[in-house]
Amino acid sequence: MSWLSKVRNSLGSLAKRDTPDNLWMKCPGCGEMLFAKEYEANLSVCPRCDHHGRISATARFEVLLDPGYTVLATPKVPENPLGFRDTKKYSDRLKAARAANPYPDALTNAAGTVEGIEAVIGVQDFAFMGGSMGMAVGAAFVAGVERAIAQNCAYVIVTAAGGARMQEGILSLMQMPKTTVAIRRLANAGLPYIVIITDPTTGGVTASYAMLGDVQIAEPGALIGFAGQRVIQDTIREKLPEGFQRAEYLHAHGMVDMVVHRKDLKATLASLLSYLERKEVA
């Protein structure tokens, strides 16, 4: 081995030791390499193409709520009620998802204030089994609504889901009417229900509580729909327009009320709460 090759190899091994694997990341939108800390500091939004990345429930609470919020306990429900098993047991899949996430299921509630205005916020985390809606999600949604009614404040839900959880079969689909009834109870109490739709929100979640808000807010570029685009095209035998099922298209066609950048979400939410609850910002 030549002297030059030895120097090159030693420099290469040194670079590998001194450079963390997570120092850089590739933007899912434009493909540009981004400095990971810069990306996180920008609320996981690409500073070049403005692509809104998916964020955790904890990060979402920190974006929307004032410091000092309280994460609420997730209601307990029967696990694997159908004894479902595919390549592995559903209960084992739940254990793996819980080991990789800070909360016990896909929907978590927190109580706090948004620029001084009291609210209960529920957040679906796509990292937990695709944010899928099962019995635990339905129970957490109802618990969030009940807490909002008890505190006489709004309930805000941040959606991110691939739809109903197939491992719970018909029991997952029963969460659609269950959550709809809870929303009616909130309305009867004269309290606002606001939905923030993030990427992706699809299936039974879109067909129920994600589209029943007093106000529908969507993040830029969010995928929003019931069935997949290919399924719809094959059914109606027509080519769908550009950007179909994206937040901007749905806003233009009246399905959502506004598309709001992540950095502006908190201020927008505070303004809506102040107006809908007829409360002054503290």
Main traits of this protein?
7-stranded mixed β-sheet, two-stranded antiparallel sheet, 282 residues, 2-enoyl-CoA Hydratase, Chain A, domain 1, 11 helices, globular, alpha/beta
Order of helices and strands: HEEHHEHEEHEHHEHEHHEH
Q: Whole-number average pLDDT?
A: 92
Share of residues in helices: 25-40%
CATH topology-level name of the largest domain: 2-enoyl-CoA Hydratase, Chain A, domain 1
Structural class: alpha/beta
- Just give the CATH class of the largest domain: Alpha Beta
Strand content: 15-25%
CATH structural architecture of the largest domain? Alpha-Beta Complex
The largest sheet is:
7 strands, mixed
Runs with pLDDT <50, length 5+?
A: none
Give a short overview:
The protein is 38% helix and 17% strand.
Can you walk through the features of this model?
The strands form two sheets. The protein has a seven-stranded mixed β-sheet, sandwiched between helices. Helix content is 38%, strand content 17%. The chain is built from eleven helices and nine strands. The protein has helices spanning 3-18, 36-41, 57-64, 90-100, 135-151, 169-173, 175-188, 203-206, 229-236, 247-252, 265-276; strands at 24-26, 33-35, 70-71, 107-114, 117-124, 154-161, 193-201, 215-218, 258-259. It is globular.
